Amino acid sequence: MAVMQYQPISPRRRPKGLTNAVWTANAAPAPQVDSLVGVHDVDVLVIGGGIAGMTTALHLAERNVDVALVEAGQFGDGATGQSGGIIAPDYIRHTPETIGEVLGEAAGERLTDMIGRSGAHVFDLIRQNEIECDMRQDGFYTPAHTEALAQQQRDMARQWQARGHRVSFVDGSQTRALFGTDRYCGALRFEDGGGLNPLAFVRGLAHVAIRRGAKLYANSPVRQLERKQGQWLCYTASGTLRARRVVLAANGGNAALHPAMRRTSLPLNVFQFASMPLDPAQRQVILPRGGAFTDKMPYLFTARLDGLGHLVSAFPMSYAVNGEKALYREAKRRLKQYFPAMPDPQIDYLWHGLAWVNTSFLPEIYDLGDDAIAIQACNGRGLATNTVIGSEVATMLATGDADALSVRPRAPVPVRFHAGASLLPRLLMSMAYLTN
Ligand SMILES: Cc1cc2nc3c(=O)[nH]c(=O)nc-3n(C[C@H](O)[C@H](O)[C@H](O)COP(=O)(O)OP(=O)(O)OC[C@H]3O[C@@H](n4cnc5c(N)ncnc54)[C@H](O)[C@@H]3O)c2cc1C
């Protein structure tokens, strides 16, 4: 039995000066659903209404499985709606060749295939279901800040191409023309990547899931989950769900739902921000052909445009930048540092996000026994991969075919010295800030 410690960041507790995510400006409303009241029975219970949980519920309903999803707040309230909306079909740390050393050749190739096609999967899903979410399949780039990295990226392009993925290397002068910054000497281009409004995406999926027959509940934090007489019992303040099988898709919240999930991932706090819409002259030089990029610097830089012309970027939380004014100053400094066409950037939106990172930097599915599994695949880079994982988990649950999964389920392993390790991301980002 696990006792819930759910603590959402309410607007009142949000640090002063932070806004809602820019995505609230042009996302269609979520479906109006009730909170959980009374006692209900279902076959599969999904906990968490982010991208992982929502796609699991949607695809289960498509396969006529009796499924309910319970979300603590509103759909997309977690990392999904806080994210930068970049669709990035790439590894964070590994390459198609190095992953085999970690997972073994067959499992490595399987995961590479899933990650490589995750961008196309997302955009196809959006097209099939006609979801309005400002999608732009205009490429994802990882730019190189050194010649040595550019050289490695040439080889990575070869590795992806050899496996049939649409990945290429663009040289320094092309990168300058594509991004409007001269800080990079080349970039890896993933044709099937791009960007979208992540809040609109998950809300749109919620509408589709309901149409397919999934039962969705919002404003229903799960306070306790227990196994009794061969069933899962999930308690909220005003209701109970009884289910044969359960999927934990609560990201950082998974830790409080099942004892085996405690201390399995580390928090990474990030500030996302959006400039005021670029003027026409800036539009001609900054990402003039669209696209989104995330570099490989420790104090990473990322950029994309949304449909309203905001330049959306981010910086990790550190001990060096504190307080409302400093956060806005840092956002402006970063834009000025990268984009000469923005000598005096204005910041329209600045918000906080909490990503949960696995020490493997890989998407994980945990087998908790007793017909319970957990998806723990945020890593600050999970929009595309979690969309595929949701679909694969649904197939596995509907058909019983474990081969449907590109991520081999394993037992969760707690991070050693978790309390101390949880401080590491912010500490490392502080050091990275100082060398930036
Ligand atoms: C600031 C930031 C920027 C990012 N940018 C990108 C990006 O540009 N591209 C990219 O690919 N990835 C990005 N990511 C990562 C991406 O957002 C995540 O990988 C992905 O959204 C994770 O989806 P999820 O469904 O697993 O988790 P979440 O979206 O966090 O969903 C979990 C849900 O569970 C709910 N929940 C928690 N506890 C309970 C409970 N007890 N009962 C009921 N519900 C509960 C939460 O409210 C939440 O809605 C970013 C993340 C952050 C934080």
UniProtKB/TrEMBL annotation:
<dbReference type="Pfam" id="PF01266">
    <property type="entry name" value="DAO"/>
</dbReference>
<feature type="domain" description="FAD dependent oxidoreductase">
    <location>
        <begin position="43"/>
        <end position="394"/>
    </location>
</feature>
<dbReference type="InterPro" id="IPR036188">
    <property type="entry name" value="FAD/NAD-bd_sf"/>
</dbReference>
<dbReference type="InterPro" id="IPR006076">
    <property type="entry name" value="FAD-dep_OxRdtase"/>
</dbReference>
<protein>
    <submittedName>
        <fullName>FAD-binding oxidoreductase</fullName>
    </submittedName>
</protein>
<keyword id="KW-0560">Oxidoreductase</keyword>
<dbReference type="GO" id="GO:0005737">
    <property type="term" value="C:cytoplasm"/>
</dbReference>
<dbReference type="GO" id="GO:0016491">
    <property type="term" value="F:oxidoreductase activity"/>
</dbReference>
